[in-house]
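wait is this the right file?? whatever heres the structure
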């Protein structure tokens, strides 16, 4: 589970990111992101019923993406709010593919630290 400091939960913050944030696509993800004034980046993962009608499949995908984020938190720059939307294509990806694609997306958005 993501640490509490890294969770984006308030409707006010989610609305701000959806309204003002920049949009990026990289299958199987669609990401809205916006800089915040905090030291830590915050995330929320969304899998709508368009991804799958089965809640168990949607929840599994969300758990996998959150775990990928948790394991890679030290590599991710602080100060950003991200809403990560999953597309139906995500069901066809393995955990390793999901991780590779998410890290590639973060590289393209320049959200990974240069260590």
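ok assuming it is, sequence goes like this
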């Amino acid at each position: 589970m993501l640490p509490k400091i890294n969770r984006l939960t308030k409707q006010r913050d989610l609305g701000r990111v959806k309204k003002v944030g920049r949009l990026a696509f990289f299958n199987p993800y669609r990401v809205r992101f916006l800089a915040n004034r905090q030291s830590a980046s915050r995330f929320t993962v969304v899998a709508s019923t368009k991804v799958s009608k089965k809640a168990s499949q949607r929840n599994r995908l969300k758990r996998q993406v959150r775990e990928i984020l948790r394991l890679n938190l030290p590599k991710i720059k602080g100060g950003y709010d991200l809403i990560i939307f999953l597309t139906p294509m995500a069901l066809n990806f393995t955990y390793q593919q999901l991780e590779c694609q998410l890290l590639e997306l973060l590289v393209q958005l320049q959200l990974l630290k240069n260590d």
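The chain is about 35% helix and 20% strand. so i think its the right one actually
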